[in-house]
Prior knowledge:
Organism: Lichtheimia ramosa
Strand order of the largest sheet: 2-1-3-4
Domain GST N-terminal: 6-90
Pfam family, one: GST_C_3
Distance between the termini: 28 Å
Protein name: Glutathione S-transferase
Helix content: 40-55%
InterPro entries: Glutathione-S-Trfase_C-like (IPR010987), Glutathione-S-Trfase_C_sf (IPR036282), Glutathione_S-Trfase_N (IPR004045), GST_C (IPR004046), GST_superfamily (IPR050213), Thioredoxin-like_sf (IPR036249)
Strand content: 5-15%
Largest sheet: 4 strands, mixed
Number of strands: 4
Structural class: alpha+beta
Amino acid sequence: MTISSLKLYYTLPYGRGLGAVIQLLLEDACIPYEFVFIDKVNEWPSVKASWIASNYHFDCMPMIEVEGGKRYSGCLPIMRFLSKKIGKYCPVDDLDEEHFVDAIADYACDWFQVAARVALQPDNKQLQQQYILKERQVFLDRFNRLYSMHKGPYALGTKISYVDFYVYTIAARLPPNKDSIKDYPNIASLVEAVKARPNLQKYLQS
Length: 206
């Protein structure tokens, strides 16, 4: 099933944060979209008020809007929605695989929140050290184990799923992590596999 007239709204610039996670899926699936940057200080308060006034009560981003004006919010819910809509990146008729992918996504949320907080405060040396010395290894060990459970670079082995775009973004594009993954072969394999995907070449170089 095709998706048309898609707009992706986010408060960080093109290619950053949770918006980038969704962009990877859209780019890989060759789904055309318009990226709409909403400045968090100058624009977001009035945009949020207008959404609520229009009876759309999810006052957060990322958010996508599709043909007909229908809106969907939340990074992972959006990715699951898109995956099911186009019939890609989501396990079909296998509850064990579906649970496995969803569980990794849940753990990835924890990792993203911690790593993003550190990435957004590069001058906070205490926070940086706490993450590097204590928290980072916990997450890297966990995801290296999880990505060893199927033969292949992705969470499900040779089949890419929506969660791989999320874990790739955390591991390879957030400053606190990207220089340390070389010591974690399963995470490194995921990163290289995503970077090698043909439909992502132009986006990753932008």
